[in-house]
Amino acid sequence: IVKSAGALVAHPFGSIMRSILVAVYELNADEVCVIGHHDCGMSKLSCDSFLDKVVKRGIPKERIETLEYSGVDFEQWLKSFDSVEDSVRDSVSVIRNHPLMPEEVPVHGLVIDPETGRLDLIVNGYPEER
Predict the structure, then answer these.
(1) Phi and psi for 82 in degrees, rounded to 5?
(2) Which of 36, 37, 3, 33 is nearest to 125 (CA)?
(3) Of 36, 38, 41, 129, which has the most beta carbons under 10 Å away?
(4) pLDDT averaged over the chain?
(5) Which residue has the higher pLDDT, 128 or 51?
(6) How is the chain split into domains, by residue range?
(7) What is the torsional sign of CA 7, 10, 79, 62?
(8) What are phi and psi of 122, to 5 degrees?
(9) What does the H/E/C string look like for the chain?
């Protein structure tokens, strides 16, 4: 289990994708499931509000400005989403289309309702003939 805020696989060569590939190649994982959830905090995230809270917790605004000047795109890094289903589809696509992901490993996308436990299949990773 690899957890990330929003079930996002935001970068094809980031730590989440590396962990998935290690699971496949080193730990013999034979399937990947991306599971988002309804009422996700990432869907309500505001970059400006987040950075205001960072400053209120004592991080100097100049540090944020230095990071921005150095190339950190906070709007992209703290990007929220409107639809958890679309977010799951995007993450499945990043994984499925990764140049090091074996074609035979199914990549599924699901969304769970934390209130009821209902699990909805968004992307069926099995080949059509199964």
Answers:
(1) -90, -35
(2) 33
(3) 36
(4) 93
(5) 51
(6) 1-41+84-130, 46-79
(7) positive
(8) -100, -40
(9) CCCCHHHCCCCCCCHHHHHHHHHHHCCCCCCEEEEEECCCHHHHCCHHHHHHHHHHCCCCHHHHHHHHHCCCCHHHHCCCCCCHHHHHHHHHHHHHCCCCCCCCCCEEEEEECCCCCCEEEEECCCCCCC
Plot region of 83 (φ>0 → left; ψ -120 to 50 → alpha; else → beta): beta
Residue 130 has pLDDT above 60, yes or no: no
CATH of 1-41+84-130, one of 3.40.1050.10, 3.90.950.10, 3.20.20.190, 3.40.190.10: 3.40.1050.10
Q: Which two tokens stand for residue 33?
A: 């499931």
pLDDT attached to residue 34 = 97
Per-residue pLDDT tens over the stretch 83-117: 999 999 999 999 999 999 999 999 999 999 999 99
Using CA atoms, how far apart are residues 128 and 80, in angstroms rounded to an integer? 32
Mean pLDDT (whole number) for 18-39: 96
